[in-house]
Specification:
The chain is of the alpha/beta class. Helices cover 37% and strands 14% of the residues. It catalyses: L-kynurenine + H2O = anthranilate + L-alanine + H(+); 3-hydroxy-L-kynurenine + H2O = 3-hydroxyanthranilate + L-alanine + H(+).
């Protein structure tokens, strides 16, 4: 049983702040500063370049990959950490397309995160020969899977509404037509139970700065199923993915298994912060997190709908069909969110009119949910959002 009083005590949060934006950037684990400082000194200070071996820096992408694998139902040795989520999606998609050379269609949905679609469009343009991205409404994905589709590329949990795809069912449906799957777990990892091996997923990628709390810009990860591991094409042939990177061979020879998906030099400071964040997850059962997340989400929805009739639920009503966030439509959503933030309730906004709230049980409980509802109700009742200062959009929303 997960001790949520203990997990709450593992994070640094400003006094007076109700943080409902962990679905965008998680708060700092208390252990992170010391773990990062250890890299600075004594490791970097005393070991200098020797830290790559003596401190284990070089192997961190694999060792942390195995820690993540245990949390997402992946086989050991088939997850590696590094680079950004966009890069990892690109790698996974390129590898999947290379395994289906006779097909040209990448299928996704219109609600997918734009960066994933940008990556797919760019890769299709580079490959040419009729390779193209096709998007359909989320509810039409299964029907759109035909024998023309090479790869189904989806994000499990929609970044705007929290709507959740059925990974196992859609993967099975894709395999029925001999298509491969690439799943983006950005809003799944640390929010809902994930079991990649059981779902027979081909490729997956995810980030670590949201629910995992590894810090801004924390590296992403990629999963390659064992059946593809020795065949996966490495479209981005970085030196760290070479079979012998320090041989400096002018000819590229991919490393074995998922290590071939390494690209550039590991970001050691960020990996150290991830290491500290994962220490918290060693004490957490994701099924407990999921149950508590649903309870908090239901409480939040009930409170908002009772007191804020101006807001309309954008997330699925059924908690089993959404992730660990709740979203509402409101015409003046951006200004209302700024009014909330000014009063210590931090959520965020997604165009055109969506107010997003992350319900993250590791550090949020019933008291925070109830107080957030009270403050939101005051803002709506007194039209406190109707302030010119709140309507000036910042570069990050």
């Amino acid at each position: 049983m997960t001790d949520f009083a203990w997990t709450r005590d593992q994070f640094l949060l400003p006094d007076g702040v109700i943080y409902l934006d962990g679905n965008s950037l998680g708060p700092m684990p208390k252990a992170a500063p010391d773990r990062v400082a250890r890299v600075l000194q004594p490791e970097w200070r005393d070991m200098l370049i020797g830290g790559w071996v003596k401190a284990g820096w070089h192997m961190m992408p694999e060792t942390l990959g195995d820690r993540i694998a245990a949390l997402i139902g992946a086989e050991p040795g088939h997850v590696v950490v590094g680079d950004t989520l966009s890069i990892k999606v690109y790698q996974a998609l390129a590898a999947a397309l290379a395994l289906r050379p006779e097909r040209r269609v990448i299928l996704s949905d219109t609600g997918n995160f734009p960066s994933d679609l940008y990556m797919a469009e760019g890769l299709a343009r580079t490959l040419g020969h009729g390779t193209r991205l096709v998007t359909v409404a989320p509810e039409d994905v299964a029907e759109a899977l035909t024998d023309e589709v090479a790869v189904l590329m989806l994000t499990e949990v929609d970044y705007r509404t929290g709507r959740r795809h059925d990974v196992a069912a859609l993967t099975a449906r894709a395999h029925e037509v001999s298509a491969l799957t690439v799943w983006d777990l950005a809003h799944s990892f640390g929010a809902v139970p994930v079991d990649l091996a059981a779902a027979n997923v081909d490729f997956a990628a995810g980030c670590t700065y949201k629910y995992i709390n590894a810090g801004p810009g924390a590296p992403a990860f990629i999963y390659v199923a064992p059946r593809h591991a020795e065949k996966a094409d490495t479209a981005l042939q970085g030196w760290q993915g070479h079979d012998a990177p320090f041989a400096f061979d002018p000819a590229y020879r991919p490393a074995s298994k998922v290590a071939r998906m390494r690209v550039g030099t590991p970001p050691v400071l960020q990996l150290a912060a991830l290491d500290a964040a994962l220490d918290v997850w060693d004490q957490v059962d994701i099924h407990d997190v999921r149950a508590r997340s649903i309870a908090l989400s239901e409480r939040f929805i009930a409170g908002v709908e009772e007191t804020c009739p101006q807001l309309r639920l954008a997330s699925p009503r059924d908690p089993e069909r959404r992730g660990s966030q709740v979203s509402f439509h409101f015409e003046h959503g951006y200004a209302a969110m700024q009014a909330l933030i000014a009063r210590g309730v931090v959520g965020d906004f997604r165009a055109p009119d969506i107010m997003r709230f992350g319900l993250t049980p590791l550090y949020i409980g019933e008291a925070e949910v109830d107080r957030a509802v009270e403050i939101l109700a005051e803002i709506m009742k007194d039209r406190l959002w109707d302030n010119p200062d709140y309507k000036v959009k910042a570069i990050v929303t």
